[in-house]
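Hey L., structure's done. Input below.
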Amino acid sequence: MTTRDRLLGLTVVVLWGLNFIAIRVGLDHFPPFFFAALRFAVMAVPVVLFVKFPRVQMRWFLLYAVGFGFGQFAFLFLAMNLGMPTGLASLVLQTSAPFTVLLGVLFLRERLVPAQILGIAIAVAGIVVIGVDRAGHSSIGVGIVVPMVLTVLAGLSWAFGNIGSRLAQPDDALRMTLWMSVVPPIPFLALSFATEGPRADLTSLTTLGSSSGLIALVGLAYVVLLGTIAGSGLWTMLMKRYEASRVAPLSLLVPVVGISAAWLLLGEVPSGIEIAGAALVIAGCAAGVLAAPRSRVRAGAGETSVRARRAPRRESPRPLVGQRD
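Output:
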């Protein structure tokens, strides 16, 4: 991974770490599923009208859109609405990184070097340390288990979305990210009407002039413009350019930003154990991302270079959107 792309990855880390603050203030005003529907609907309308659909394999695009766009935020928003602390949510969601690496090995036949395995193990150990400490001090006690499980499911959904974006190999990563927003709004609205009720949704809209409503609008704007368009667009570009096992560990740095932001802005003060765990996450992430790749790897009966694997060719038998079989 080049220095430039590492810096882009760190930019995504900052954007996504602060994204949890925006989600928190949004959920303080909107019902969770309705907030998720708004998040994608405000993007979907201009995208359908003005953005050309990318050349991409439809099945992998749908896996990306359903996993990254719908599943991840359905579980995450519900977990945070049920009491998942903001900083802890930013941490537990990063289970997506080891899930992505595992799915990459299973479905993409990616190979890991020992330093990557060690780095991911250290980072996961740091997450476990912080999670156990934060759960022990949670105001909702053992009730934190349900939101934590939901957040882990959000991480698994994100991992499937990562695999979908890796396999899709779009001609334009940003356009694929924008068109991803077209898929979730209707499922989220259906969930909102069924579980939250139209009255709750209408009330949240008619009270937008209140202080909480205005703050929620700022949060919604951040989630859409910086969290999704900028952050997800850059992330999809990196997932297209590099192996999933190289990009995914970067997300392990997101809770460092998320917990720090929750401390500064929401008063969620980290303990000494949490700080030690965050140091483990940083060290493990650095080891995993900076690890030197294998010079040659097995590929069936022959061998291919890592450089060739980083720029996979689109297989001609697989039809693209707009092409006939």
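The first strand starts at residue 296 and ends at 299. The beta strands are 296-299, 302-305.

-- N.
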